[in-house]
Amino acid sequence: MVALTLVTYSIGRLGLSGLDIALGVLLLALIKGHLIGAYFMGLNRVQGFWRWPVTIWLLLPGLLITIAFVLAEG
Amino acid sequence: MQYQSQAVAKPYFIAAIGLFVLQILFGLIMGLQYVVGDFLFPEIPFNVARMVHTNALIIWLLMGFMGAAYYLVPEESETELFSPRLALVTFWVFLAAAVLTVAGYLLVPYATLAELTGNHLLPTMGREFLEQPTITKIGIVVVALAFIFNVGMTVLKGRKTAINLVLLLGLVGLAVLFLFSFYNPTNLVLDKYYWWWVVHLWVEGVWELILGAILAFVLIKVTGVDREVIEKWLYIIIAMALISGIIGTGHHYFWIGVPEYWQWWGSIFSALEPLPFFMMTVFAFNMVNRRRRNHPNRAAVLWALGTAVMAFLGAGVWGFLHTLSPVNYYTHGTQITAAHGHMSFYGAYVMIVLTIISYAMPLLRGRKVAASNKSQVLEMWSFWLMTVAMVFITFFLTAAGILQVHMQRVMDKPLPFMYVQDQIALFYWLREGAGLVFLIGLIVYIASFFIGNNEPEAEVVPST
Amino acid sequence: MTALTQTNPAGQLNRYPPGDLAIWIFILAELAVFAIFFATYAFTRMNNVELFNQFQQHLDRDAALINTLALITSSYFVVRAVAAIREGASQICVRWLLAALGMGVLFLAVKSAEYGHHFSAGINLSTNSFYMFYLSLTFFHFMHVIMGMVILAAVALKARRGGYSIEDHTGVETGASYWHMVDLVWLILFPLVYVMH
Ligand code: HEM
Ligand code: HEM
Ligand SMILES: [Fe+2]
Q1: pLDDT digits (tens, 9 = 90+) for B268-286
Q2: How many alpha carbons fall within 13 Å on the CB side of residue C100?
Q3: Does residue A71 contact residue C46 with C-beta atoms inside 8 Å?
Q4: β-strand partners of B372
């Protein structure tokens, strides 16, 4: 997790930009979010309805952000 | 009724119903003036009727809240009220102030009233919902202070429950926010800015706490579900109401001249305001489904569920309809607003007051648990008549509003205001018709207090 | 991470998430708010790419990095606190909670310094839409950090008085879940506002 953060940080530091990089950073964030949900919050040990909210929460804005960034490029 | 002092709630409830009748009569007068412009002119001009209609509404709801507090606080605190005498004195002061103010509205022109009551000393008059003469406003503050002192002392000396605390918090908030009605800057932007702190932060902030507390109280009583469960719901609901509602004030700041970020804040936060109302609906139905017993007061259960549904429709759905800034750009100040104002006020606050009256009144009048079956059947009829009438009033106003927006603001060649009003007169006639049905419902409601008193109390219907 | 999962009997699935269900309903509502905020940010940026990219460069990414690490570690500490109380070790639990709170304080301090910097530069909500979003989003999150810390502090106090046990420690899990949510939101906020362009 810390490692992933450092990657994100260095991307920011180096001033890298571009659609693929931005989306890559987003993907990293979503992965980290998933780790928080699954392990810290303990949702990987939950079954049924309550397992999904965090995942859905990550995917939905993730998707919207992706769309917005892609459109912004195009 | 477990505590003697709960009896002070009764005059409050009776006066509330009296003012309710007054409010509706003036609504009907205005409804007619909408289509027959000179009806009752010059005796009762539209603007005066409007003041009486809206101010009577606010005052009777406040009376209802006070009655509710005097009824439920002793029971929750498990102790007698701190001072029943003070509660009765404030009742008469409040009623006298209300009657004098309405008389003032009706008997002299508003400008004269302002002069007579020394408005120039501390100008507070002339703003929608806050038209009361300054001296009446001061009276309201005094009454509110005495009331909060009385209820607060009762809570302090007795058991402290979540319901008590939330109710008290709501009442204190109500009083504190009312103080902004004394602040009347000449800058119109600032004036509107703080005006909404009373109007919006009342109905979409602190009043929701009062609503939640009363609803929770009645649900505990009629369902027998564990207090713990109900309190947990209450806490989440009020937390969400405050989080969304406070910044949600921004949905009134779109076009008054404040910085642009309010477009975003207002839209985003107020878009979440339906959540607490939605949760209230889920909460009420959930509790009734989980009930441990069937309460013989079926009318009260009906009112409680009705409140939950109608508050969500009126505030949640009809509020959301026009709360996003790009939509509000078109609908601002049209009949859409009036449609929402009617259903939300009725669904949330009128109905919650009628709920607690429905639960408490039989007990205050000496019944052991509930009124007779006959009274209850009448009361339930009145529930349906009034509620369905209100749904229709809302539909007709919404239809009128959509047409109004279209003709006046969307079309390539927008039409003038009065011309458009003529075009949609049909809906105003229909609204007046629905208003008459509402009045019939109200008459049936009042009749339910007089009919069936000689009959035995309703029994529990065996659960199926 | 693997060590954490082992603190609980593996393979056993629950129907409900840890902590009071009420807090989860609340968490969902909060997440919804942030989701809307994120999406509006992204779509507004879409129409002002230049502006957003330009002013994003002015933000202090070092501060944001420290803060991200602060929140992640503090979340981890909270996980340890929950693990401790599941074994009935109240005092250890308290210590982990205090450590988590310390990280929270660090976060607030760094963020306040950032705000101080912006405000002294005369930046406010009306400067431009990038700053409008940046300030609103981070400040809203800031308030959540404070709220989460209040909850954690309350839990820590109760734990110190021995208020939780192996059988009954829902309170700790409730506070923990809320705190993780605060962390979670920041994890998206950080790249979105500070890095992605
Ligand atoms: C029980 C709760 C509520 C009550 C009693 C209520 C009542 C009212 C009233 C009377 C007005 C008209 C104010 C005026 O004179 O201009 C109004 C306006 C408005 N309400 Fe509500 N409301 C409630 C809840 C809500 C909620 C939850 C929302 C949003 C989701 C909302 C959105 C609005 C908006 C956007 C306006 C402004 C309309 C315009 O621009 O003309 N209301 N409300
Ligand atoms: C319990 C029932 C009622 C409630 C809670 C209620 C509430 C309100 C409120 C809050 C307003 C101010 C709306 C705003 O500022 O947008 C209002 C105005 C009004 N009401 Fe009612 N009302 C009720 C019943 C009625 C009835 C039965 C009628 C007539 C059929 C009526 C006719 C009117 C009219 C004509 C206005 C003035 C609208 C305008 O200024 O254009 N109301 N009412
Ligand atoms: Fe509002």
Answers
A1: 999 999 999 999 999 999 9
A2: 34
A3: yes
A4: B457
Domains of chain C: 58-195 (1.20.120.80)
pLDDT tens by residue, C154-169: 999 999 998 899 888 9
The per-residue pLDDT for range C177-195, each reduced to its tens digit, is 999 999 999 999 998 998 8
Are A50 and A57 a contacting pair, CB within 8 Å?
no
Domain boundaries, chain A: 2-73
Compare CB distances from B261 to C26, C37, C132 and report the shortest one's residue.
C132
Closest among B375, B359, B355 to B456, alpha carbons compared:
B375
Output the ligand 2 site: residues, CB below 6 A.
Answer: B 24, 27-28, 30-31, 34, 50, 53-54, 57, 337-338, 341-342, 345-346, 350, 431-432, 435, 438
User: Across the interface, do C22 and B236 touch by the CB < 8 Å criterion?
Assistant: yes
pLDDT at B463: 54
Strands (E) located in B202-349: none
For the entire predicted model, the pTM comes to 0.89
**CB B41, CB B330: distance < 8 Å:** no
ipTM surpasses 0.90: no
Residues from chain C that touch A69, judged by Cβ atoms under 8 A, are 42, 45-46, 196
3-state secondary structure chain C: CHHHHHCCCCCCCECCCCCCHHHHHHHHHHHHHHHHHHHHHHHHHHHCHHHHHHHHCCCCHHHHHHHHHHHHHHHHHHHHHHHHHHCCCHHHHHHHHHHHHHHHHHHHHHHHHHHHHHHHCCCCCCCCHHHHHHHHHHHHHHHHHHHHHHHHHHHHHHHHCCCCCCCCCHHHHHHHHHHHHHHHHHHHHHHHHHHCC
Per-domain residue ranges for chain B?
1-160
